[in-house]
Design brief:
- This is Alpha/beta hydrolase.
- The protein is of the alpha/beta class.
- It has a single domain, classed as 3-Layer(aba) Sandwich (Rossmann fold).
- Helix content is about 45%, strand content about 15%.
- The protein has 12 helices and 11 strands.
- α1 crosses α6, α4 crosses α5 and α6 packs antiparallel against α7.
Length: about 325
């Protein structure tokens, strides 16, 4: 009994040490995340890139086979784009998918089956983030994010599109819609961070920790689980393994977005679908939903029993509702 109590005390002290260390490294990461000078995203080593690419290819193998793969030059670097099209969808308004942080194209694996039957789909890895896009110049603001997205779509001959973004991709999608409203047929924002408000401090902490190089795998998995809003982070899952490899081996260089002002929200008159998680939202939950309702033409929904991993957790509902939303926006 005495030995058991002593063991528990040792474990408790060890736990406190872990928390203390994470607090320190989290503060360092947060400082670099928000105040570091603009740079160019890159892999920390050739071996690290090889390890990431192997995990990336494994995750991509779970998706429907793309019709085409493009490497599109932009003013900030070359963007890897995957296209799914068929004779039936070739002339449709394309759906453009902007991924969340460290997620790349593979994050859409659960949603593509619902999107492909009616639309040409274009999905890309974000510049400055883990993936197969290659950044060549610093991104100094969210406006720059919108510029390279426009370069990609112009390079592919896309005149108008249904733009969908998750997490940081939601902030980039909103910025693109703000700068190029004439090119956006509809806007879909899934747990869009830094769009209607700032994420909770605890989530910023865990997001910062998850990107630290040299972090023990178990600690990184804990941080990623906290960000994703899941109890356990299954590092054997293809998608989870890819995110873990990217967090470990890629040094991202992304500008921190600023929430849209009230005037900017009211001026965005594009048909918009907003989905916010009920639990552990990085967006701000009901408070963010209230701000989102200032949009001129928006359907704002809080999804029950979901977290920041909403696109995967609510795939059946999204795969049903979004094609219907897109059809409606094309009739406006």
């Amino acid at each position: 009994m005495t030995q058991h109590i002593r063991s528990r005390r040792v474990l408790r002290r060890a736990g406190l040490v872990v928390v203390a260390v994470l607090a320190v490294v989290g503060l360092v990461a947060a400082y670099q995340f928000f105040f570091g000078a603009p740079g160019v995203g890159h892999f920390r080593s050739a071996d690290g890139r090889d390890s990431y690419v192997a995990a990336y290819e494994r995750a991509m193998s779970t998706l429907p086979t793309p019709s085409e793969v493009h490497d599109v030059p932009t003013r900030f670097g070359t963007v890897r784009v995957y296209e799914w099209t068929s004779p039936r969808t070739a002339d449709s308004v394309p759906v453009v998918l902007v991924p969340g942080r460290a997620s790349g194209v593979p994050m859409w694996g659960e949603n593509l089956p619902g999107f492909l039957p009616e639309h040409r789909v274009l999905a890309f890895d974000a510049l400055g983030d883990a993936g197969l896009s290659v950044q060549a110049a610093p991104l100094t603001s969210t406006d720059d994010q919108a510029l390279w997205i426009d370069d990609v779509l112009s390079g592919l001959g896309v005149e108008t599109a249904h733009v969908v973004g998750h997490s940081f991709g939601g902030a980039s999608a909103a910025s693109y819609a703000k700068q190029f409203p004439e090119k956006v047929r509809s806007l879909t924002l899934l747990e869009p961070v830094f769009t209607f408000g700032y994420p909770p401090a605890r989530m910023l902490f865990w997001a910062s920790v998850s990107t630290l190089p040299g972090l023990p795998t178990s600690w990184r998995d804990t941080a990623l689980a906290k960000v994703g809003g899941v109890d356990d982070y299954d590092s054997d899952d293809a998608m989870a393994a890819m995110i873990s490899e990217g967090s470990q081996h890629f040094s991202a260089a992304l500008p921190t977005p600023s929430p849209l002002s009230d005037d900017e929200l009211r001026a965005l008159a594009i048909p918009t679908y907003v989905a916010i998680a009920e639990r552990d939202s990085l967006v701000g939950g009901e408070k963010a939903a209230a701000r989102a309702r200032q949009l001129a033409d928006a359907e704002v929904l809080v999804f029950p029993d979901t977290t920041h991993s909403l696109p995967m957790q609510a795939k059946d509902r999204l795969n049903s509702e979004l094609p219907e939303f897109w059809r409606g926006s094309e009739q406006d």
